Amino acid sequence: MTDHYFSDSEGAYAASPIAVTIGGEERLLESPKGVFSNDGLDIGTRVLLDVAPEPPETGSLLDLGCGWGPIALHLALSAPTASVWAVDVNPDALSATARNAHTVSLSNVRTSLPDDVDDAVRFDTIWSNPPIRIGKAALHELLLRWLPRLTDDGEAWLVVQKHLGSDSLLRWLQQLDGFDAERVESKKNFRILRVFRA
């Protein structure tokens, strides 16, 4: 069976260089095979980085499903005094994110497997290009695990492709007990969703 970017299997780490613009500068980073969009910055993540507001300057910020780390790097560069958690089930993704943070000289990025994040940690914002292709049930389970860890005034910003169920996901989010959600923008066939406490 072929591994996917949202699997937790780990082989010998081998990465390829990628040139991407993060934080307004072109940077030479790396991405291993088997990580989502390993050949560069995908359109959906770029839309999220362009549309979402500046993150909180302090506190704990979460990149959920970090891949090789573009969202985590953006958050860390935008909020250098905040603690940025980069969470993924793929150890190669975590290795790439850590190495890319080091390349950019960021000391406020912390990579972690989901089960290794202390239950006491609450997040002032969550940004994610979630792994839609894991299926609706698994995606809902993922969001139900992390959204309740938002602080009282925290927000989650999600980017979802229009044709991969963004509107049905929005309706589901709007029905979650204690939360509400809205579509902030549609751009390049992607929806930007904001989730907040009701």
Secondary-structure blueprint:
Layout: E1 15-22, E2 25-32, H1 43-51, E3 60-64, H2 70-78, E4 83-87, H3 91-103, E5 109-112, E6 123-128, H4 136-146, E7 150-161, H5 166-174, E8 179-187, E9 190-197
Parallel strand pairs: 3-4, 3-6, 4-5, 6-7
Antiparallel strand pairs: 1-2, 7-9, 8-9
Briefly characterize the structure:
With 198 residues, the chain is of the alpha/beta class. Helix content is 26%, strand content 33%.
Please describe the structure with a list of short key phrases separated by commas or semicolons.
globular, 33% strand, 26% helix, 198 residues, alpha/beta, 5 helices, 9 strands
Please give a structural write-up.
The chain is α/β, with parallel strands linked by helices. It has helices at 43-51, 70-78, 91-103, 136-146, 166-174; strands at 15-22, 25-32, 60-64, 83-87, 109-112, 123-128, 150-161, 179-187, 190-197. 26% of the residues lie in helices and 33% in strands. The protein has a 7-stranded mixed sheet with strand order 5-4-3-6-7-9-8, sandwiched between helices. The chain has a two-stranded antiparallel sheet with strand order 1-2. The radius of gyration is 16 Å and the shape is globular. The N and C termini lie far apart (42 Å). The model is unreliable at 1-6 (pLDDT under 50).
